[in-house]
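User: quick one, fold this
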Amino acid sequence: MRINFNVPPYTGKEMEYIRECVENQKICGDGIYTKKDNEWFEEKTGVSKCLLTTSCTHATEMAAILAGIKEGDEVIMPSFTFVSTANAFVLRGATVVFVDIRPDTMNIDEKLIEAAITPKTRAIVPVHYAGVGCEMDTILDIAKRHNLFVIEDAAQGVMSTYKGKALGAIGDFGNYSFHETKNYSMGEGGALLLRDEDYINDAIIIREKGTNRTLYQLGKVDKYTWLMPGSSYLPSDMNAAYLYAQLQMADEINEDRISHYNRYIEEFKPLEEAGLIELPYVPDECVHNAHMFYIKCKDGEERGHLIDYLKSNDILPASHYVPLHTSTAGLKYSRFHGEDKYTTKESLRLLRLPMYYKLTKEDQGEVIQRVKEFYKAV
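Assistant:
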C-alpha cells in the first residue's frame, strides 16, 4: 500500500548505537543500553525498578510469576485485548474471567469487576486501550478491599498518564510493549515495571533463568546457580540500543503523534456531528499518547465496506482484536461473567487509521479525504 497502517519509528541514531554495542563486544543482555533504558523508565515513571524484557508478553508472564498465580486461580480482565494478556495467566494454570468493556474508552468497565470476584480471584488486569487510562482509582479500591494484585497491561501506554501518574506505574506491576507497532520500538521487546521494592530481587532472578547471575556479574558471588523457576526474559543489548535512540526523542515523537491525532479529530468532527461515525473519547483525568486513531462505523458491515474502499485507494487501515472469549482457546480456558453488551458489538465497529511518527501531512490528508468521500456516498 502507498499509505501503510504503520511505519516503525526511526530517529537516525539507532544504527550508531547498535554499532557501538558490536564494537564494545557486548551484544547480549544487560549491557550499557539495557541499563540506560531501564533508568530512563524509572525516572520517567517513578517506579522502584524497570526491567527490559524480550516482549510485553514475557513481562506479563513475569508479573504472573511474581504474583504467585497458580492452577485454580482466577484473573479478571477484559476480553477486548491481545491474546498475551490472557496467555500469561493461562500458562500458570489460572482461569481467565472476562467482564464487559465501556463503550466510550473500550477499557474494562470498572463497575462490573467486583461482581466477578470469587474466592479464587487473585488479580485484576486492566488494559489501557489506545493509551487511554482505565478508571484506576476504582480498580485499586476494589483490589485493596479484596486483597488482589493489580497488573496493568500498559502495552500501548508509554507516555500516557492517569491523574498525573504514568500508566504502568499505578498498580502492583505494569507492562510495556516495544513491538514495531508501538510508539517506541525495538522490533520485539517489552518492560516490567515494579512499584514495590520487595519484588525486585525475585524479578531479577526470574528474568535471568532463575539464577543469581546478576550478583555474579557484580562480583558479589564467585559463581552463579539456579535459585528458583525462571526463564530467558532478557533482550539483546542491540535491541535496547535501538530503543534508546527513540527514548532520547520521546517528547518529539509524542508531540508528532498528538498533532496527527488532533488533526484527525478536527477533520472528522463534522462526520460525528452528523451521526455518521463515533470518535475516540478521552476522560478528563487521562492524558493519552496518540498510540492509535480509530473511528467507529455504524456496524461491522459498514466497516468492511470502508476497509475495501480505503484499500482500493492504496490506504491500509486495520480492525483490531477479535474478543478472546469467542476464540477456540477462550472457550476452553476462560469464561465471560455477565452480559457481553459492548465487547463484541463495539469491536466489530472499530476501525484504526494510519498513525505513526512522521506521517506526512499529504498522506494524512489523503486518508481524511478518502474517509470523507466514503461517507458522502453512504
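User: anything notable?
Assistant: The two ends are 24 Å apart (CA to CA).
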